[in-house]
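request received
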Amino acid sequence: MDKPMNVCVLVGSLRKASLNGMLANALIWLAPSSMKLDIVEIGQLPLYNEDLETAAPPEQWTAFRQRVKAADAVLFVSPEYNRSVPAVLKNALDVGSRPYGSSVWDRKPGAIVSSSPGAIGGFGANHHLRQSLVFLNVRTMQQPEAYVSHVDKLFDEHGKLAGDGTRKFLQEYMQAFSNWVQTIRSD
Ligand code: FNR
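response:
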């Protein structure tokens, strides 16, 4: 069997009890064995400032860039903040996109899962993120889409997914993502 694909998971919330963190862990658990997923932290990245883009940029930027560059694909799991992408996630996109000409996102297969305790499932964040990913040339999976609504009702007190319907949907989503990454890599 081929080595599993190495997939970075970026979570757009820094909160310890983040529902998106729980969702990311559920997606990792439900993913097919063709994928090995790891959450890559983004909260430690200094805010992007071009003045710091010297011969010795912040070490957190360098480590993050190297980690994403080495990945076969990237999965974004994010809440919506004010109908858009949380600043911490946008900062990670910006950090990875520079220095000009060395973006770590270029041609990387990707997928987006957004969520919300509300009914719209983070649609605004999902599509604002897609807008940046178009420019960054991330090969973002278009279908299936994942807007997870009422995310605060999905987990039991141990942080395990409570409903069979959601589990099946997320499992199929991850299988589709694995197929997508394989298709893009053989392109
Ligand atoms: C939110 N929340 C929110 N929810 C939503 O559906 N649409 C939105 O535009 C916003 N805006 C927003 C802004 C800010 C600054 C915060 C802190 C929150 C609510 C949000 O979905 C909820 O707090 C989630 O639980 C956040 O995700 P985590 O931290 O649980 O992963």
